[in-house]
């Protein structure tokens, strides 16, 4: 397993599954062109670019470059790396026929080719055992007043503090804080926001 700091952005869930087997970092998929209409995910990617940095790894076909350019635009001002795989022709095992352009997507590209593409992107890489992360859960959200009755207003304040869209769902917020913050940071933010709320007449 290779550790890198930036989050990796790929096109689909099969790409995501493959990349998670190779790299120890956050991996997001754009649901193909779905990213064009997904304000939550676009805002999340923008925030990741400003904090951890992102590495864009899309397919080498026309659609892949359209998605790559869109991500580059929404992440402008952040740290964005680009990894490019070569044009390899064929079809993925799960598919009955090749793609329109006949090129393999990220899921079908050999592991070593992907690792080399990421290495060429300039991202610092460290091989070794996976880091153990202490993930926050829905149970934590209940304890901190971010889930359950009357939690919407608290989540809205937390989203504002984290500079994330106010209409982000509780599940999307949970995913975001597990990437952007430590457990201690979220607890401190919740306590601060609670104290500010108590002071209001």
Tell me the total number of β-strands. 7
How many separate helices? Answer: 8
Termini gap: 53 Å
SS-based class: alpha/beta
The residue-averaged pLDDT reads: 88
Strand content: 5-15%
The sequence of SSEs as H and E is EEHEEHEHEHEHHHH
- Radius of gyration over all CA atoms, rounded: 19 Å
Question: Runs with pLDDT <50, length 5+?
Answer: none
Concise synopsis of the structure shown:
The chain is an alpha/beta fold. It is built from 8 helices and 7 strands.
Give structural notes:
- With 201 residues, this protein is an alpha/beta fold.
- Helix content is 45%, strand content 9%.
- The protein has helices at 13-22, 39-51, 62-74, 111-120, 138-143, 152-161, 170-180, 183-199, and strands at residues 2-3, 7-10, 23-24, 27-29, 54-56, 80-82, 126-127.
- The protein has a four-stranded parallel beta sheet with strand order 4-2-5-6, sandwiched between helices.
- Helix 3 (62-74) links the parallel strand 5 and strand 6.
- Helix 6 (152-161) crosses helix 8 (183-199).
- It is elongated.
- The N and C termini lie far apart (53 Å).
- The mean pLDDT is 88.
């Amino acid at each position: 397993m290779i550790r890198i700091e930036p989050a990796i952005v790929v096109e689909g869930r099969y790409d995501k599954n493959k990349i998670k087997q190779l790299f120890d970092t956050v991996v997001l998929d754009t649901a193909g062109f779905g990213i064009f209409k997904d304000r939550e995910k676009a805002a999340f990617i923008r925030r990741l670019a400003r904090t951890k940095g992102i590495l864009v790894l899309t397919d080498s076909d026309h659609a892949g470059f359209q998605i790559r350019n869109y991500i580059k635009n929404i992440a402008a001002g952040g740290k964005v790396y680009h990894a490019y795989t070569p044009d390899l022709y064929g079809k993925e095992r799960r598919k009955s026929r090749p793609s329109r352009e006949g090129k393999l997507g990220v899921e079908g590209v050999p592991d070593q080719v992907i690792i080399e593409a990421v290495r060429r992107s300039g991202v610092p890489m460290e091989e070794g055992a996976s880091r153990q992360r202490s993930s926050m859960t829905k149970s934590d959200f209940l304890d901190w007043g971010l889930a359950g009755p009357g939690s919407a207003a608290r989540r809205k304040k937390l989203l504002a503090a984290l500079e994330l869209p106010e209409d982000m769902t509780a599940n999307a917020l949970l995913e975001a804080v597990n990437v952007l913050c430590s457990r201690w940071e979220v607890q401190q933010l919740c306590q601060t926001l609670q104290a500010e709320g108590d002071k209001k007449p």
